[in-house]
Fold:
Amino acid sequence: MSGNNPYGQDSQHHVLSVLVQNRPGVLARVSALFARRGYNIFSLAVAPTEHPDYSRITIVVDLESAPLEQMTKQLFKLVDVVRISELDPRHSVERELVMATVKA
Structure:
C-alpha cells in the first residue's frame, strides 16, 4: 500500500454508505444494480440502524470518478434508498476478521 489510499495507489475503490428501508429484497436490488452495470463489489456489509425501519449497506466498489456520480444517481432511483454518502477511507476505521483452525 502506498499514499493515502488503503487499496493501493492505482485503485479506484470507493466506500459508499447507503441507508435503505429494512425490507426483503432491498439488498438484492442494490447488488443487482452494480452487476447490471458491470461494476465489481469489493466488499459489502449490511447492518440494522438504531431505527428498526432502516438498514445501512456499506459497499466498497471499484469505480472511476465519472461513473461514481452516475452510480449514485442510479441508486437513488431505487425506491428503498433513503441516503447515500461516500466515506473517505483516510477517516474511516477498517476491521478485518480472520477465522483459523489450530490443531493442538
User: Anything to note?
Assistant: The two ends are 35 Å apart (CA to CA). The chain is about 25% helix and 30% strand. The first helix runs from residue 26 to 37.
